[in-house]
Amino acid sequence: MNTKPLDGSTLSAFKTRSFTRDVTLSLVLLITVVLGILFSAEYISRSEEMETELQLSANKYVSELAHILVVPVWTFDDKSVAQVCKVFYQNDLVYSIHVEDVRGRELYSLDEKHDNSDKITRSTDILFEGLSIGRAHITLTSLPYARDLDRLVLTMLLTFVGILFVLAASTGVLLRLFIKRPLDGLMRGMDRVAKGEFDHGFAHPTHKEIGEISDRFSHMVSEVYAREEILAQEVSERKRAEERYALAVRGANDGIWDWDLITNEVYYSPRWKAIIGFRDAEFLNDIEEWKKRIHPDDRQFVVDTHMNYMAGIVNELDLEYRLQHKDESYRWIYTRGASLQDETGDSIRISGAITDITRRKSDQLALRKQEERYRAMVESFDGYIYICDQDHTLQFMNGKLREHVGRDAVGERCHAALHGIQASCPWCVNDRVFAGETVRLEIQNPKNDRWYYLVNTPIYNPDGTMAKQTMVQDITERKLAEEEVVNSEAKYRTLI
């Protein structure tokens, strides 16, 4: 046989042929795989059909058996019962039959076949005019179906083995020729890239499909290299950010905590533990250890608040409570936190910080006691005290003044509430007081003609605003006494 050497154009066409065309040449052999899938599908389909048929037959047979046995069982005709059961037992599918009366006593039983195939049993009541008079049991065997399936499997297996042999031989050659060699070269290049040689150039394979993979992988390497540079920069920036955060946390003197709700693991930072007097190794990272140290009066509220926050019942975790120190005293703690949620909206992690606010609480208590003392002094003052702003609006009235006016007039104009006039009082000294002067004067109230001694003092609020405090004493009796003295002196001079 003569062979003709390949010329340049033929060789070039061979080198540039499409990988798709090469696969097409092998489809004749690959059709056998499709046949194998079809065979499997046919087997599965047939198995399911047989199983369904067996179940339907079982339901049908037991219903028919119960229907036919109604009269024999009702009339206690054991012979007819046996004849009916034997007729049913002649069916190849029927494996056994059992009939019982309503008390469970066996009327007839037939169980002479023996095989190892799967069985299915159905039972039903034998009803006469809606009343159960017995019970029928029938068991069907899948042996006839199993034999049909065995023959089907044998046929498909012989066909499949033949096709598999041809397919294995042909695809082995095709894969080695058209895929393995180009991929080996591509994998060698990938190994070099994995070692950090990002400048490695990939050779262009013969088939254009593999060539496209090679080109895209080269492009991916370039992208990976660029992203690696960006990632390194981001890691560096994140490290600096973490360092800044750690420094800020130390500067803020807060204790950090983190609770993983999936594993129930909790973390307390060394500063968190130090706030209640423990070194890091002395206090376990255990949620129960924290709960035990919450003040008994606060414990239920604190735990419930955390649970409600996790369940989404409350929108924020922000509360104050008492936590037991190592020395068994209690520290006031302010805690706040935020949760991380999964795609369903359930909380899976909660993190936050605590701050020791014991000194602030002590200051608040001292301030409250001071305010209570001041209020007691104001309420016990034998006169009237009120505070108003520059617009003459009352901001405070002591109890005696409220009792005198007959109501709490806070929010009303002082001249209207106290003196019954609509314009500013003729003796109003607001301008002088809000200029920082303390003004004392005596006035006669046009509302009741009584005389009062007023001390008007500027007061400065914590927010930087000013107000006027006025202390009022009723001096009507003194003024009347003074007037009586003056009148007496005038009468005396007249007599002289």
Describe this structure in words.
With 496 residues, this protein is an alpha+beta fold. Helix content is 53%, strand content 22%. It is built from 14 helices and 14 strands. The protein has a five-stranded antiparallel sheet with strand order 6-5-9-8-7, sandwiched between helices. A hairpin with a 2-residue loop joins strand 3 and strand 4. Helix 2 packs antiparallel against helix 5 (143-194). The chain is elongated. The N and C termini lie far apart (176 Å).
From the spread of the alpha carbons, the general shape counts as elongated
**Reading side by side through the largest sheet, how are the strands ordered?**
6-5-9-8-7
How much is the average pLDDT? Answer: 81
User: How would a textbook summarize the main sheet?
Assistant: 5 strands, antiparallel
Mind telling me the C-alpha Rg? 51 Å
User: What is the SS-derived class?
Assistant: alpha+beta
Poorly predicted regions are: 1-15
Q: How many E-type strands?
A: 14
Share in β-strands = 15-25%
Distance between the termini: 176 Å
The percent of residues in helical segments reads 40-55%
What's the tally of helices? Answer: 14
Order of helices and strands: HHHHEEEEHHEEHHHEEEHEEHHHEEEH
